[in-house]
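Lab manual, section 2.4: Encoding a predicted structure.

Procedure: take the sequence of the chain (181 residues), apply the prediction step described in section 2.3, and record the output as structure tokens. A sample record is shown.
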Amino acid sequence: MAVLEIPKPLRDKLGEEATDAFVHIVKDIDLNARQDAILIAEERLERRLTEEIGKVNERITSEIGKVNVEINKVNERITLEIGKVNIEIGKVNERITSEIGNVNERMTSEVGKINERMSSEVARINERMTSEVGRINERMSSEIGKVNEKIVQSKGEIIKWMFIFWASQLGAMFAFLKIFI
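Recorded output:
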């Protein structure tokens, strides 16, 4: 606050104490006037802020409404697109199922053909093996018979040579006995 200067004639008439009291009253009036001015300014500011906030709120509400409308439109478009995609997925699933069925039929047919070929090949191999085993058995029987004949012949030869050896031994023993006795 600025310093109040009381003119000298007024100071002289009032006196020192009255002048100080007068200055004090003026300062209080000034302080009250300032406080009132501040209150009025605060009220005006508050009113203006309330009005501006109301306008801003209205604009925000309006804009939110517009955004919600746009979001709903986008949601509807997304729902439509999802529906289209689901239809396409259904078609693809049907095609896949159909193709899997075709592949299964072809595989079943091919497996059947392979099983038939394997059965005929196994039967042919079994016949061949049976035939070969029969021939091998015949040859083995023939060879075993020949071996048995050779064993019998060898046995006779061995007995003959054993007898000759035994007789030679006997002859040698008689000859030694005659020479020494």
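Check your result against the sample. Residues 8-144 form one domain.
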